TrEMBL record:
It is found in: Cell membrane. This is histidine kinase. The gene is walK. Residues 1-152 form the Histidine kinase domain.
Length: 160
């Protein structure tokens, strides 16, 4: 169904701002103000961005900044979530989309979770004919990018 992606991202960001108050994370949003109608399953895409943003929070230090940026292109829309957290070593980056893979097993155990989040996110994004990728620098931070098919001219319920 046609869903306003900007509104969805604002809702997710606001929810995480509330539940992570203690960590003093700063949420920066670079999201167009006008509606961005994207053909998607809203619940599934919510699950995708919930996982990406929860990872960004989980692997950020107190007071870290998280940026959610939307870039519209001719036929696609990019959503980038960037954090200033622990980062991921280069050789581990391709593996984070594998089921149950976690970079640091001891730390992962303390932080909870199963290591399935990104594997599920990849499956859901690909089922929307999109891509997901990760770019990270160890000890500096991480950017997760999701690209979805998009047409600027699409309006709610009407696509050309
Ligand atoms: P779950 O999502 O099931 O709760 P998880 O968060 O550990 O568990 P994934 O979301 O699949 O699992 O992420 C896999 C691994 O990738 C994580 O355990 C972590 O090591 C690494 N990772 C993911 N996102 C980040 C990030 N933003 N910064 C640093 N490491 C990350
Ligand atoms: Mg996760």
């Amino acid at each position: 169904e046609m869903t306003d992606l900007g509104e969805l991202l604002h809702q997710i960001s606001e929810r995480f701002e509330m539940i992570t108050k203690d960590k003093n994370i700063g949420f920066n949003k670079d999201i167009p103000m006008h509606p961005l109608y994207v053909d998607m399953d809203k619940d599934k895409m919510t699950q995708v961005f919930d996982n990406i943003v929860s990872n960004a929070v989980k692997y950020s230090p107190d007071g870290g900044q998280i940026t959610i940026q939307v870039i519209t292109r001719a036929k696609a829309i990019d959503i980038e979530v960037t954090d200033e957290g622990v980062g991921i070593p280069k050789d581990s980056q391709p593996k984070v989309f594998d089921r149950f893979y976690r970079v640091d097993k001891a730390r992962a155990r303390n932080l909870g979770g199963t290591g399935l989040g990104l594997a599920i996110a990849k499956e859901l994004v690909e089922s929307h004919d999109g891509y997901i990728s990760i770019d990270s620098e160890w000890q500096k931070g991480t950017t997760v990018s999701v690209t979805l098919p998009y047409s600027v001219h699409e309006k709610a319920g009407v696509s050309e």
